[in-house]
User: Fold GNAT family N-acetyltransferase from Stutzerimonas kirkiae.
Amino acid sequence: MNDLQIRIADWSRDNGDLRRIREAVFVAEQAVPPELEWDAEDAEAVHFLALDGDYAIGTARLLRDGHIGRVAVLRDWRGLKVGEALMQAVIAEAERMGLDRQYLTAQVHATRFYERLGFEVVSDEFLEAGIPHVDMVRQG
Assistant:
């Protein structure tokens, strides 16, 4: 992969790519029920797309209160620092918006990834959509 780009997505225009990635990762791979994956906050969120050339391979969203979520990278591009580049773009946009505190709900297996980006675990482990999670916070 030699042409990684991260850009802010348009929920309407980029909806097909955003849905394709989230459905592949969360609904198909992790068996998250579709009714839990899609919510009213999508229309108001700032969405991000990671692209390899012009093919969308990852996504994330940022809510107006600093909540980061729906971070997903397609299987074939994992381990190539796509998630890190995506998260750095989300954090930079949050800080540009004046959101010095960002938070997220992380799958337990991904906590080290988020810790490397400055997030700290602030909760006990709990189940969400049948998957172990923890709450994490980053103070900018």
Notes: The two ends are 30 Å apart (CA to CA). The chain is about 30% helix and 35% strand.
